[in-house]
Amino acid sequence: MPDGSSPDTMSMHAGATSLPPIRTDWTRDEVAALMALPFPDLIYRAQTVHRARFDPTEMQISTLLSIKTGGCPEDCAYCPQSAVHEDGGVKASRLMAVEEVLKEARAAKAAGAARFCMGAAWRSPKEHDLETVCAMVEGVKALGLESCVTLGMLDNRQAHRLRDAGLDYYNHNIDTSPEYYGDIISTRTFQDRLDTLENVRDAGINVCCGGIVGMGEDATDRAGMIATLASMPRHPESVPINMLVRVEGTPLADRAAAVDPIEFVRTIAAARITMPASRVRLAAGREDMSDEAQTLCFLAGANSIFYGERLLTTPNPAAVRDRQLLDRLGMHTSHKQG
User: Fold this and answer.
1) pLDDT (mean) for 233-254
2) Would you give the distance in Å from CA 75 to the centre of its chain?
3) C or N: which end of the chain has fewer Cβ atoms within 10 Å?
């Protein structure tokens, strides 16, 4: 089975020569077979793919800020920001002011972030709110940071408006496999997700798209999620893999059993092998991971993390803990964009 590497490199580690063509035809069965490999073989393969294109000691740092929290009309079973889950404990807030957001962006840059991500709990943005977000994007870009937003569903015109403001990345996760999606969300379809991603691509904006592990799905669903991402005509430039954070008041708080950390690492490795040019981000859930589990994720090819003590509404490891871990591993943060 080809390793999925590509000649159109974003970055190439010293010593790499020729790379096989990128694959965009991965099947669920192929990904499931990858994830079922003996663990040493899987990690070796993921490391081989990773080292062909990235410096294995480098970690890209992003910071995420909730610019509008709570009150979302969607019913995503994992999300405390849903207005449907009245016991989620998150009160709806207004959209932050532009200068307030830029203050946070300056602090993120000073802490070492290369990308500043802004999230708003909307089904889709209203016109006046989109204009404000565009001003935020322009301000973040002026600071020398990459910009990323997640605002829910976008039509083609909205995507082009964000592109004109200078947006670098748009985050819109598929969350899980097409088959399991209906068990998690009923207020929008899996195709709605794909339509937004197509509008983002059409506008020329980089795609940030991944999913969540630990929502009660089985291994075949995790393989289906990775296969969906890896069979897109162009792979997402950034692939966040989240471990479910169970929040009281949400339907998944008690419904889903925790995923074995080794199985989570297998998902990271499959993402790395099938999408070798992408930044694979170890995202939500790190607060509950041991240093050893995170290290295995890095060995499996994760080369991006969120920096800062909160991810929208859930905890994230303190920056000092992240710095200490990277120092212990002899790794460094990347100041390069991309």
Assistant:
1) 90
2) 20
3) N
